[in-house]
Amino acid sequence: xxxxxxxxxWILIAIVLIEGIAIKVISRHWNSYRRAKRxxxxxxxxxxxRVPAExxxxxxxxxxxxxGHTVSTEVAFISIGQTAVVGAPSDYESWILAVxxxxxxxxxxxxxxxxxxxxxxxxxxxxGAKVIxxxxxxxxxxxxxxxxxxxxxxxxxxxxxxxFQTFVYTGTDVEHKVVQLYGDSKAFDHRPYQGRxxxxxxxxxxxxxxxxxxxxxxxxxVKPGGIVLWHDYRGPHRSGGVFHALNALGSKLPLMQIEGTxxxxxxxxx
Length: 270
Ligand SMILES: C[S@@+](CC[C@H](N)C(=O)[O-])C[C@H]1O[C@@H](n2cnc3c(N)ncnc32)[C@H](O)[C@@H]1O
Known about the structure:
The protein is an alpha/beta fold. It folds into 2 domains: about 1-40; about 40-265, Rossmann fold. The chain is about 35% helix and about 15% strand. The protein has helices spanning about 5-40, 55, 90-100, 115-125, 150-160, 210-220, 240-250, and strands at about 50, 105-110, 130-135, 180, 195-200, 220-230, 255-260, 265. Strand 2 (about 105-110), helix 4 and strand 3 (about 130-135) form a beta-alpha-beta unit. Helix 3 (about 90-100) packs parallel to helix 4 (about 115-125) and helix 6 packs across helix 7 (about 240-250). The longest helix is centred in the first third of the chain and has 33 residues, at about 5-40. The protein binds S-adenosylmethionine (SAM).
């Protein structure tokens, strides 16, 4: 007795297989759509105003939109390519950071990590500029001070990223522009930098108590007309500490999320 399927049965088998694959593909897309919606606060707009980069600084305006950006935004750049570089801003975010360095003499970064942004700042800033960058040394992990409402994942990420002692800028001809500081940012004495910084990047621990502490310091360190940028404003479910801390701060200050990025910006009044 033979069990070979008839041509009609083959067609049925093929239909069932194709249907199975289609259901899998659709449900994968549906799940990622739902996850994205959840991260965005279930369709509710996020608290911070979303603006194009040119609202933060006129240098990003495109006088002839069809030609795109002009040479005033030309920078020396290293792409992250297709590598998953730990903690790294996207290429578009890095380009924004690098362009802003062109007009900055005093820059401060909370969270060095690989030193990519540090390097782009040192490379693209005017001669004589200084880039101060603060990070937790791998031997200082026990100085980390978790806040009562911080998520344990944020603490774990912060400690995991505190693994670097040599950086992208190390050994380059712009290293002399960099001042590398080590220590826990809650213990950092920011007073010597008060009102002196043109550009500040808050990108240290993403735990809420740290984002709050670093932000308070950054707001005192920025000089009139200077810019503070934060990284990883990605909704309540990814880097929730950044999201909640910045939404709360945004009810007091005109913070702006830069379109197409996870950067948030604040321009200090003149
Ligand atoms: C997201 S990475 C920074 C990425 C970097 N700004 C860049 O643009 O490539 C976070 C950095 O914050 C540092 N960090 C975490 N907790 C810290 C703390 N309590 N004090 C100082 N630095 C901290 C980590 O060591 C890590 O280098």
